[in-house]
Design a protein that fits this description.
The chain is an alpha/beta fold and 341 residues long. The chain is built from 15 helices and eight strands. Strand 4, helix 7 and strand 5 form a beta-alpha-beta unit. The longest helix is centred in the N-terminal third of the chain and has 21 residues. The two termini are 16 Å apart. The structure holds 5-methoxybenzene-1,3-dicarboxylic acid and manganese (II) ion. 5-methoxybenzene-1,3-dicarboxylic acid binds next to helix 2.
Length: 341
């Protein structure tokens, strides 16, 4: 039996310059709910420093690659970790996105079969973001785009961001909407018990983002725009029946814009999901049945999740070998323009 190619699709990295800028930002006063977790990652001071993710984020070609070798993981699709550049002022954000994309392209050039990457951009400056997207996809050859949900508490259904969506669609660049902590308007009851981040807040934030985009009619304007969401679809597809039913009702009541399709149709047409951070065979089984095995991609969520259990999950979960091949690499190759072997 030939070994199946394994491409993990939500794998985080950072660069020292972004880490330093975040460390500075986290020292200052900040109302963002991101401060709880992100502060702990970048501010190694007493009271923080509960996580040590930073080493894993800054290392790509050394220990990470060795572990990939040991486990037989062929490729990480890398993305600049949350919150990306989205908490900086526009000039800093544009500069750091460009730098991160250049570094990513250099890593990929050194290991073209081991790494691929999603391009960062600064939504704070939509037109400069479009130019960076054109450069990162067209010139650097990166594989898609990453955005860490809201920017200054605004979501991509806001028409001021539509030039970004237009560019993504024009380049057939799948836009991965990765979480960051919920926006100020959402954060109220999520500030205690560790609910700000991966346990609950991240899913609430990205799920809200995805539903806003569908409800706003974004996918009538950009019918070929492709969005990827992680963490087993942030459970959005569990809600599709009710979302569709109730959005129809909201439209008839004049509370939501009329759209050409129902939410279930947009989700199947315009979205794919990854398994990052969810090693639950039943949730995967539901996802495959609901969306089709061609809409689900394997991801680890390294370094926030260890590689080995995520790999063991996908190797052992009860799917057909045809489905396993789709999940492990074929969908990633198709969606993120990774050359098949
Ligand atoms: C965690 C997960 C923390 C992610 C993160 O910080 C990110 C966590 C930026 O598990 O605590 C993530 O990317 O899923
Ligand atoms: Mn992640």
């Amino acid at each position: 039996m030939t070994k199946i190619r394994k491409i993990a699709t939500e794998e985080a990295f950072s660069i020292p310059e972004v880490a330093a800028a975040l460390r500075e930002l986290m020292k200052g006063p900040l109302g963002s709910l991101d401060k709880l977790l992100v502060g702990g990652i970048y501010n190694r001071e007493p009271g923080y420093a509960i996580h040590n993710f930073l080493d894993g984020l800054l290392d790509v070609e050394d220990r990470r690659l060795r572990q990939m070798d040991e486990l037989g993981i062929d490729m990480h699709l890398l993305s600049l970790t949350a919150p990306g550049v989205q908490m900086f002022d526009a000039d800093t954000a544009c500069e750091l996105a460009t730098l991160a994309n250049d570094r990513l392209a250099e890593i990929i050039a050194r290991h073209p079969l081991r790494f691929a990457g999603l391009a960062s951009f600064a939504p704070q400056a939509p037109h400069r973001a479009v130019r960076e997207i054109e450069r990162a996809i067209g010139k650097l050859g990166l594989n898609g785009l990453i955005v860490n949900s809201h920017t200054n508490n605004e979501y991509l259904d806001d028409p001021k961001y539509w030039p970004i969506l237009e560019a993504a669609e024009a380049h057939d660049a799948c836009l991965y909407i990765h979480p960051r902590a919920p926006s100020d308007g959402l954060k109220g009851p999520l500030q205690e018990y560790g609910m700000d981040s991966a346990m609950w807040g991240y899913g609430v934030e990205v799920g809200t983002h995805a539903v806003r985009m569908m409800a706003a009619g974004v996918f009538d304007r950009f019918p070929n725009l492709r969005i990827c969401i992680g963490h087993m679809g942030e459970a959005v597809h569990f809600w599709l029946w009710r979302l569709t039913f109730m959005n129809g009702r909201a439209q008839r009541a004049g509370r939501a814009p009329k759209t050409k399709l129902g939410m279930d149709e947009y989700f199947r047409r315009n979205f794919v999901i990854t398994t990052s951070g969810v090693e639950d065979p039943l949730a995967l089984d539901y996802s495959i049945k609901k969306l089709g095995a061609d809409h689900v991609l394997w991801a680890i969520d390294y370094p926030y999740q260890p590689m080995e259990p995520a790999l063991a999950f996908m190797e052992s979960t009860p799917v057909t070998e045809e489905q396993r091949a789709l999940l492990f690499h074929r969908n990633a190759e198709r969606i993120f323009h990774i050359k098949p072997l």
